[in-house]
Amino acid sequence: MPWNRASATAGAVVTESPCVWVYAVADDAAPALTGGLIGVGGAAARPLSAAGLTAIVGSVAESEFGEAALRQNLEDLDWLERTARAHHEVIETVAKERPVVPMRLATVYSSDEAAARMLLERAADLREALTRLAGCSEWGIKGHVAMPGDDAAGQQPEADGSSAGPGAAYLRRRRAQLTARQDARQEAVVSAQAVHAELDRLSASARLYPPQSPEIAGHSGSMVLNAAYLVADDRAEEFGAAVTELAARHGALQLTLTGPWPAYSFAGRNETGDVQ
Amino acid sequence: MTYGNLATPSSGSVRRSGVAGGPQTANLADILERVLDKGLVIAGDIRVNLLDIELLTIKLRLVIASLDTARQVGINWWESDPWLNAQAADRAAEKSHDQQELEEENRQLRNRIDALESGERNGGSRGD
């Protein structure tokens, strides 16, 4: 069994039978990974070739990444963040050099042989994905809208000249506020649809995601658009310019552009955006 | 192809967040929604992972997704998600995402997964 223990244990002690963590799959000419690329569990990322493909893998300790340990660790948000970022960083680094098919977090095998068998069994799918993703990157777009009335709590009642009491005035004000919020939301949704339609046109493929909650995403206002686009790298500038132009045209919508990402959202063949 | 060092302009109405190496590291929500829910899904031979991650993904969806908004933009992934469809979506739609409820949800899902897993052991292997 060809464990390369020297490179697999950078900083981490791999004691008992190591597991094989798979980051991504590239074509056979995968870059010779330089020693600097440290990934999940502190282990060096290394290439593993079979069936004319190269998986980017790392040897991780079963005590942290085996079945029982993973079950526990995935519940730990700090561990999850650390691991997700390490997984992402390795994929991103390799993706800068060549097309890759990113694997979902925690794709783990019991040995190099088992991982190589996967490459063999899924070779056709993987090659198809590599061809489809070559020369493309994923760009993320999020659209937020600020809701009117969010900071109007301390507003003074207006003198409206009517004989109704303060209660009725309050209700009128409240209703106007709610109507304004509804209108703002509605307008933002229409803008989001227009933005999506235009960006969809400029991309090879698109995915709509559910909006993120403010607590996790760290934004204020209401998210009305959360989408990913697969864009040819030679059209990335055009795409970015379109985003700027759309932002100007739809002033109520605060657009955030992220990327380029490795093509996570487009690794599978399912074109509907469902995960399977 | 990289915009890695873009600053975030304050004047325009487009914000750009660098994914890595830039002034901002990618935000956790962006990374999680990609590495957990996207990426090619191939069952490793540490098979329990798939089930665990599905569970985790569902929990994160409950936290991350604001279903109201999703519905308005026409995103309806939960309607084809058998687990969420039945109970979680209704519950989540009531905006009562408090910790207790998540824990209860988690407990129920875990029971269900245990049942699925034991069925799997008895009934042979699960395809990927």
Explain what the structure shows.
The complex is a heterodimer of chains A (276) and B (128). Chain A folds into two domains: 5-133, no CATH class; 136-266, Alpha-Beta Plaits (2-Layer Sandwich). Chain A is elongated and about 80 Å long. Residues 1-14, 152-157 and 270-276 of chain A have low confidence and may be disordered. Chain A is α+β, with helices and mostly antiparallel strands and 276 residues long. Chain A is built from nine helices and nine strands. With 128 residues, chain B is mostly helical. Chain B folds into two domains: 1-26, no CATH class; 36-123, no CATH class. In chain B, 53% of the residues lie in helices and 3% in strands. The longest helix of chain B is centred in the last third of the chain and has 25 residues, at 99-123. Chain B is flat, with a radius of gyration of 18 Å. Mean pLDDT of chain B is 55; it is low at 1-12, 18-24, 63-96 and 123-128. The interface between A and B is large, with 80 and 53 residues.
Brief account:
The complex is a heterodimer of chains A (276) and B (128). Chain A has helices spanning 5-8, 62-65, 67-73, 77-95, 112-121, 123-133, 166-202, 214-217, 236-249, and strands at residues 18-27, 46-50, 53-61, 100-102, 108-109, 136-145, 205-208, 222-232, 254-261. With 276 residues, chain A is an alpha+beta fold.
